[in-house]
Write a structure and sequence with these properties.
Layout lengths: L2 H12 L19 H12 L3 H17 L4 H11 L2 H8 L11 H14 L2 H4 L2 H4 L2 H7 L9 H18 L4 H7 L2 H11 L4 H40 L4 H8 L11 H15 L5 H18 L8 H22 L8 H19 L8 H23 L9 H14 L7 H20 L1 H16 L12 H12 L3 H9 L2 H15 L11 H20 L1 H6 L1 H17 L6 H17 L10 H15 L2 E4 L8 E4 L1 H4 L2 H18 L6 H7 L2 H11 L7 H17 L1 H9 L2 H7 L3 H8 L2
Antiparallel strand pairs: 1-2
Helix pairs in contact: 1-3, 2-3, 5-6, 6-10, 9-10, 10-11, 10-13, 11-13, 12-13, 13-14, 13-15, 14-16, 15-16, 16-18, 17-18, 17-19, 18-19, 18-20, 18-22, 19-20, 19-21, 20-22, 20-23, 21-24, 23-26, 25-26, 25-28, 26-29, 28-29, 28-30, 29-30, 29-32, 32-35, 35-36, 35-38, 37-38
Length: 729
């Protein structure tokens, strides 16, 4: 033994560590390593601290030198236990003439030996050492010291073993390991590459928790990696392409990182590359598109050229992968290309502040059309056994994004595929939990290693709603959708989604996509009401839908921030009531009266009289609640006014109900208080339509209008039909 070893043994004696700290429990069976067996015997027979420590040093060397199996490692643990390495790790004073890390190095070596057993790696006595082990990663010392290097290696071995246990990542994160690993990597000291590898594993296992505990340190690593990526001229840039997606934060990516990442990707993708070099770059670009949209791409000529290149490369990759039957599809790469195509679709349809110029948009739409054709070709080959595969879900998603903006091209191919899309959406709707799992698998496939964000909704039907809304306007596609049972499926879907917004559910935690989906369903039903009224009358699912609309609107119109959804529900319900006017549910029942009272509230509160400086007369203006959404609302409002007008002669109880609500009187009062020049002709026509039908339907309504100066108001606004109606007895 060296002098350092003996001195260390003497120091252990002063600390009061006796032979009883070891618990010999050695099996006397034959060992496959005679040297180790001899050392273990010496440990068992040690008479004092010096002999015990010497035996431990020999055992440690044997462990490092030999090929030790799990059974033998367990025998070592049974002989040594945790007490001795615990004291080694916490002893603060080193023997004279020895570096201060000698005792800790031996303790870490013993733990590393124990941690090779998964059961021991999850032992509380190992887990409570995580904070101590984490400090060793950033401890200063001679970088050329072999003992220190060995201790660093053993520390990483311990932490990696813990990370491999089921609850290990959570313990490491709570113990400060993520910050320590970040600092070790940024320090670029010995073992920094092991720090990066362990960081990658922890982020893949528990991204959200890692960022919550160590966001500043992880952002510092991201800045370093991004800068290295931007500067790299060798093959390391392709390796960084694979690492960087894991280090993008769930919140905002720092602008300097985005700048470096875009510059690095531009250099890579602008070069002639093999597929193994190009594919990681496309996946990194897709991850950035998913996280930041197009915000990471600079404005101007260079940015537009880069975006066009991205989308072009993605479309080429999709066509190469999907057009040839029998070719093995690299699903993760193609899914990443889908994300880049979505970015292209968004930019091509953006009217303001688009990165692309019109000629570029025209060119990219043509290129994307060919790629979408390849997607349709692929989906036509999908059999029932593949419908639950995540790549099919991703392919339906990109097709849905395309159909949301463009249905005129590829019309024949789309119509041929519609039966499959209806069946696919129905299958996933009926197995909603699997649909949500598929969405997460798609995200894992190419975009993010963890749970997807709101841009990856968990059901296929929601992806298809915007496209189906366009298609129900056209005769051919609409007939196919009706034949395949899409209206019934949409009714069920609407009712299911509506339940999420009903009382008893916390609507504040619902993603915006739920309400947008409900609005889009309403638009589809509106199309069917106008183009296929016979379907509304004969399909029982629409009776159930009407009942839900009647029950829901009274509370909906009272809720702040949900005016647009209320407008959709009110207008759809009014149009359907015209077609279902003979239904018992609409014959003055409490539900029907409540619905029409709420519809009157929605229609009557849209405009107010507003005083203007320097003018004696007020002007007709939008009420504050309607101003911000009127651009999206006005078509529904006018349609609702027209539908209400049509309901009055069909429902005899409606005119008296409107009179009790004082809507006709207040409407005439409003018109009488503002300048006629401030009321647009289309508003005059809408108001006159309602007033005329109410006056024709009920004598008391006519009398109330006359008492409200109805004839004079009609004359001022040139409402000839209303004037004539009020002149009658």
């Amino acid at each position: 033994m060296s002098c350092c070893d003996l001195a260390a043994a003497g120091q252990l004696g002063k600390a009061g560590i006796m032979a009883s700290d070891c618990e010999p429990a050695l099996n006397q069976a034959e060992s496959r390593n005679p040297t180790l067996e001899r050392y273990l015997g010496a440990l068992r027979e040690a008479k004092n601290d010096s002999e015990q420590f010497a035996a431990l040093l020999l055992v440690t060397k044997a462990v490092k030198a030999g090929d030790i199996d799990a059974k033998t490692r367990r025998r070592i643990f049974d002989a040594v236990g945790f007490t001795f390495p615990n004291r080694l790790l916490t002893t603060k004073e080193a023997p004279d003439g020895c570096p201060d890390h000698v005792l800790r190095a031996l303790g870490v070596a013993l733990l590393a030996c124990f941690c090779s057993d998964p059961e021991l790696a999850a032992h509380p006595q190992v887990l409570n050492k995580i904070p101590i082990l984490s400090t060793f990663l950033t401890a200063r010392g001679d970088p050329d010291d072999a003992a220190r290097r060995s201790m660093v290696d053993d520390t990483y071995q311990c932490l990696t073993a813990v990370a491999g246990t089921p609850r290990g990542p959570r313990h490491l994160i709570a113990g400060g390991t993520v910050s320590a690993l970040c600092q070790a990597y940024l320090g670029h000291g010995y073992g920094f590459d092991q720090a990066l590898a362990l960081l990658v594993g922890l982020l893949a296992a528990a991204e959200t928790q890692c960022w919550k505990e160590a966001e500043p340190d992880l952002l510092a690593v991201l800045r370093g990696l991004s800068e290295d990526f931007q500067k790299a001229e060798d093959a390391s840039k392709f390796e960084l392409c694979q690492l960087l997606p894991l280090f993008l934060p769930p919140t905002t990516v720092p602008s300097e990182c985005l700048r470096d990442l875009q510059a690095g990707l531009a250099r890579i993708l602008g070069s002639k590359l093999s597929s193994w070099q190009r594919n990681p770059a496309l996946k990194l670009a897709a991850r950035l598109a998913h996280a930041c949209g197009s915000d990471w791409i600079p404005a101007g000529s260079s940015g537009s050229k880069f975006l066009a290149l991205l989308v072009n490369l993605a479309c080429v990759e999709v066509r190469l992968a999907l057009e040839e039957t029998g070719t093995e599809v690299k699903e993760d790469v193609v899914t990443a290309c889908y994300a880049l195509m979505e970015l292209g679709i968004q930019e091509c349809t953006r009217c303001e502040q688009s990165l692309l110029k019109e000629p570029q948009k025209v060119q990219l739409v043509s290129i994307m059309k060919e790629a979408i054709g390849a997607v349709i070709h692929y989906l036509q080959q999908v059999g029932p056994e593949k419908q639950k595969e995540p790549f099919v879900f991703a392919s339906v998603r990109i097709l849905g994004a395309w159909l949301a903006e463009e249905t005129s091209s590829l019309r024949k191919e789309v119509c041929q595929l519609l039966p499959f899309l209806v069946r696919y959406a129905k299958t996933l709707y009926e197995e909603a939990e699997e649909a949500n799992d598929l969405s997460q698998q798609v995200a894992t496939l190419a975009i993010s290693p963890t749970t997807p964000g709101p841009t990856w909704p968990g059901d296929a039907l929601r992806l298809l709603l915007p496209g189906w809304c366009h298609l129900t306007v056209e005769d051919g596609p609409r007939e196919i959708l009706i034949k395949e049972g899409a209206p019934s499926l949409l009714c069920k879907y609407f009712l299911q989604q509506w339940e999420l917004t009903s009382p008893g559910h916390d609507t504040s935690v619902l993603p915006d996509s739920v309400e947008i989906g409900l609005q889009t369903c309403c638009h589809i039903f509106l199309n069917l009401v106008v183009t296929a009224p016979g379907l509304i009358k004969r399909d029982a699912c629409f009776t159930s839908l009407m009942n839900t609309l009647m029950a829901s609107l009274p509370s909906l119109v009272q809720q702040q921030g949900r005016l647009l959804l209320a407008a959709n529900v009110a207008t759809l319900g009014l149009l359907m009531a015209r077609l279902l006017s003979t239904s018992p549910a609409l014959q003055g029942t409490p539900a029907s009266r409540g619905f029409f009272a709420a519809a009157i509230l929605f229609l009557s509160q849209s405009h107010v009289a507003r005083a203007t400086p320097g003018s004696e007369q007020a002007v007709l203006a939008l009420s504050p609640d309607y101003e911000g959404v009127w651009a999206d609302l006005q078509e529904l409002w006018f349609l609702g006014m027209q539908a209400f007008t049509g309901c009055v002669p069909l429902l005899p109880w409606l005119a008296p109900a409107a009179l009790r609500s004082r809507w006709p009187q207040e409407l005439l009062q409003l018109l009488g208080s503002v300048s006629p020049n401030s009321v647009k002709p289309e508003m005059v026509a809408a108001y006159q339509g309602v007033l005329v039908e109410l006056a024709r339907a009920n004598r008391l309504c006519r009398e109330a209008m006359r008492l409200q100066a109805g004839e004079e108001t009609a004359s001022h606004y040139r409402m000839a039909a209303l004037e004539q109606c009020l002149a009658e007895p």
